[in-house]
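Researcher: Here's a chain I'd like modeled. Treat it as a single chain, no partners, no ligands.
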Amino acid sequence: MPLSNRSLAAFALTSLVIEMTPGPNMTYLALVSLSQGIRAGLAAVGGVALGLSVYGAVAALGLSAAIDNSPLLYEVLRWG
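Model: Modeled as a single isolated chain. Structure tokens:
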């Protein structure tokens, strides 16, 4: 089923709000940017965004329930 423009806009807005909420990722990104410069900061932002995108895709596919029910899969993902 294709996403409507309204659904896509709601998803994008929700993603933006989540990304702007302070937390460990924001602390890490601020520290990298301040200590190593803008280039390293942007690379870190790209890495965090890629990781969150992968996590979101896995959750959307329903694999998060399988990971939740498997301690081994959870630990592998956590340490990866």
